[in-house]
Amino acid sequence: MATTTKVSALPLDYKATQKPRTLWGDAWRRFRKHLLAMLGSTALIIIMLGITFGPLIWTLDPTYIDIVDSFSGMTAEHPFGTDNLGRDTLARVLYGGRVSLAIGVVAMLIGILIGTLVGLLAGYFKFLDSPLMRLTDMFLSLPLLPLLLVITLLFRDSLRVTFGPELGIFILTVIVIGCLGWMPTARLVRGEVLSMKEREFVVAARSLGAPDFRIVRNHILPNVLSPVIVSATFSIASAIITESALSFLGLGFPPDFPTWGRLLFDGKDFLTLTPALVLWPGLMISLTVLCVNFIGDGLRDALDPRITK
Amino acid sequence: MGQYLLRRVLIAIPTLLVISFVIFAILDLSPSDPVGNLPLTIPAEVREKIRETLGANDPFLVKYVKWLNQFLISEPLNVIEKITGTKFPGSEERLRYLSWQTRSPIIDLILERLPQTLWVVGTAYMFAIIIAIPIGVISAYKPYSIFDQVGTFLAMIGFSVPTFFTGLIFIIIFSVNLKWFPSIYDTTHRVTDIESFWVQMRQIFMPVAVLTLFFTAQLSRFTRSAMLDNLNQDYIRTARSKGLSERRVVIRHALRNSLIPVVTLVALGIPQIFQGALITEQIFRVNGLGQLLITAVQGGDLPMVQALTFIFAVLIVVFNVIADILYALVDPRIAYH
Fold first, then answer.
1. Is B97 on the interface with A (CB under 8 A)?
2. Angle, vertex CA B261, rays to CA B167 and CA A286, nearest 5
3. Domain membership flag for residue B207
4. Contact call for B172 and A271, based on CB within 8 A
5. Measured distance CA(A67)–CA(A71) in Å, rounded
6. What's the domain count of chain B?
7. Residue A286 to residue B320, Cβ atoms within 8 A
8. Does A279 touch chain B (CB under 8 A)?
9. What's the CATH fold of domain A25-56+81-303?
10. Is B180 on the interface with A (CB under 8 A)?
11. CA dist., res. A220 & res. A264, Å (int)
12. Is the ipTM, as predicted for this complex, more than 0.90?
């Protein structure tokens, strides 16, 4: 009797200690070992918490004008200083971060969606491959920054009328950045799909009579997910930079609506008076982009199934 | 090879046509008015007349074909005439493509601004290549050494920090605090003697440094990964076991092969840097092409914007072709089909 309990107890104990290893668990394990990526994620989480909850703690109104207290420098009252109208830079940086990050994420989603769709279609359906790749090549040959400038300038007013000044520009910027940034993802996904299509498990699924849609959804899409995630991370970074560049050239959001790029644009005329005006928003852009890039690097290493540590 | 070249060039032509159509369409469909900037005192009939003479009321396709004809045939002839000083038959009747803002021929304005951009961008690109390749090679030769780690980290910062921020930081440090370099690039400055040359060097330093930093970050990483791929190949082991010196193995064998993708990247990067210079020119007030584009965009000067955007697109397509041809030239493994 005693021996049987012992024998049955062993596998029970064994099961309890050895958790099943999952794909995402493995990825997380590898990601944790990437020091810079972990640092990046921590810093990014802090930044995100800051811009989400910061305005609740730092309750100064970013649009409150206090002309007497302009260019105050870094004081206890205004830790990041104030601008030419006496508006608090810390409050403006916090609000600006919301817009900049929101643009980064939404533009990335649009770009990734289009890119993945085009890539899947081009890779999976042979008759679509050539026309879609031609289209991708054509988009890659468009001069992005000049076109962005032109499109924002030309369609700004009509969208402003329809959606209001802030939302209008937001929609425009996000759509334009997304629609001009999907090409690398499309190429990447197409390549992955092409190599995936001839694999045994896809052939097996097809010979069992699975329709194209199900093959793509259940067999191909999960397998191209990791490069898509990596490319999504990097495209957040580039979307943030592009939006800041647009704002920096004076063609982004309206002046009293702070985004990081806009703050830089407004601050660059007062470099000799208070460098703090460009220092903080610039640092925030750089830090955010740096963190996102490190995370992307970490994800690339972590999600690559060929590297198994 | 000749056939490959020809085919590659021929493919570029429809691409260019489509791009020109897209650029033209975006700008033409936009609600921008050529007479919008004229004084409000001009009566409506006169306004309409001006619009008519500018050809703004023509049907869309007519405008496109006119534009294409102007851009592909008339303007190149104008440029050749301007540069060589010769006259082609019919040069008097040939139209000049005019800017709405300044009423002067666009091509003249562009030719006027081009040298400034080429100077700044060209110098920066050259420096970046000179600096980046050795860094990439050393990083790859001893991967994960301290040099490599520091290099990777700096490169990451180099392409994460946008040029408009590095530019402003440079101004704060070098011209506001240290007063070493002027923050504004004076394009009227002429180099005549040693002293004026020195002034030129000082004013070009910051814009060039900002752009160099950015390109170096990208190029050095790319060189590193290309080198790493090659250093692990069998032929490197063969070269070493033949008893060749390390120097020879790295430089003659590994580097030469690694430069194949690097050369393509360098060619592909040239149009990008013209666009990157847009921002740098704005920071340091260099009155180059980028600044021309921005003032044109702000002033709603459609012909100028169309011309410049199209030129940027042409640059991209042309350098894509050049990159492909270079690739085929330096890499004998590429089959021409």
1. no
2. 25
3. yes
4. yes
5. 9
6. 1
7. no
8. yes
9. MetI-like fold (1.10.3720)
10. no
11. 44
12. no
Question: Residue B174 sits in a domain of what CATH number?
Answer: 1.10.3720.10
> Taking CA B119 as the corner, what is the angle to CA B117 and CA B125, rounded to the nearest 5 degrees?
95
Shortest Cα distance, chain B CAs vs residue A167, angstroms? 20
DSSP-derived 3-state class of residue B98: strand
Q: Where are the domains of chain A?
A: 25-56+81-303
Q: Which tens digit of pLDDT belongs to each residue from B23-55?
A: 888 877 766 666 666 677 778 788 778 777 766
A150 touches chain B (CB under 8 A): yes
Nearest residue of B to residue A135, measured between CA atoms: B15
Domain that residue B250 falls in: 111-330
Instruction: Say yes or no: B88 contacts chain A, CB-CB below 8 A.
Output: no
The answer as to whether B21 is a domain residue is no
Please name the helix (run of DSSP H) or strand (run of DSSP E) that holds residue B222, with its range, or none: helix B194-231
Say which amino acid occupies A90: L
Closest Cβ opposite residue A146 in set B31, B165, B275 = B275
Residue B24 inside a domain? The answer is: no
DSSP calls for B32-57 = --TTTTS-TTS-HHHHHHHHHHTTTT
B280 and B211 in contact (C-beta within 8 Å)? yes
Question: Is position B18 within any domain?
Answer: no
Q: Angle, nearest 10°, between helix axes A144-163 and B256-284?
A: 50
Whether B169 has its CB under 8 Å from any CB of chain A: the answer is: yes
Interface touch B298/A145, C-beta < 8 Å: no
Local confidence band at A11 (pLDDT 50, 70, 90 cut-offs)? low
Contact: B165, A151; criterion CB under 8 Å: no
Residue B217 structure tokens: 């970050």
Predicted TM-score (pTM) of this structure: 0.83
Q: How far apart are CA B233 and CA A43, in angstroms?
A: 39
